[in-house]
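Q: Structure tokens for this one, please.
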Amino acid sequence: MHLSDGVLSTTMIAATSVIGAGSVAFALRGIKAEEISKIALMTAVFFVCPVLRIPIGPIPVHLMLAGFIGLVLGNRTPIAVLMALLLQLFLLHCGGLASLGANVIIQSLPAMLLGAVFRPRLAKATDGAAFGYGFAAGVVSVTGSTLLFALLLYQSDSQFAKGPFSTVSAVIASQFVLMFIEGFCTAFAVRFIVGVRPDFFHEPTDETNNLDLSPDPARSNGG
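A: Here is the predicted structure, written as tokens:
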């Protein structure tokens, strides 16, 4: 679910670019060394999602797994989304530069909010609870992204939302099916990870987050 260049109005391009850049700047604040590997992993996950297309009526849709990424990265979600969108733009020709800010907002903001709500609960979640949190994250992330997508289209040109067979109606109808597919995929992934690696969703701590580059005193003294 990408917005291409030439769809949004100039006003919306400017507004979404500022908001998108602000979300990425916020996500970069206080980033820790141990978070880089997770960000890279989630960037790869989001990048390959367009390859997994599901034909639903006239509009093929694809998994986004934004809810899963939000659970893993929390406030760092916009970083992974931005990097993946840039790779998709230049390698797969999806999206556009002018609409980059809008696509970052659409994909990352709902996921980031869900991460803030559900991520702390996964630290002590049972398998059943983890499945429920994952399902909710998958469903709500697609719902939130779809509503933002429709809102940006409508604010750019109300013609996109006129009539029962409008662009907005077609997008909402196709994403309605996808939200449940995404919910179950996210739920099974979260339950599996909680079962084999319970600390995967934990918030990083100050003691383990900083990359210590100072010399070892013992080695400096020849010990």
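A few notes: The radius of gyration is 19 Å. The CA atoms of residues 146 and 171 lie 8 Å apart.
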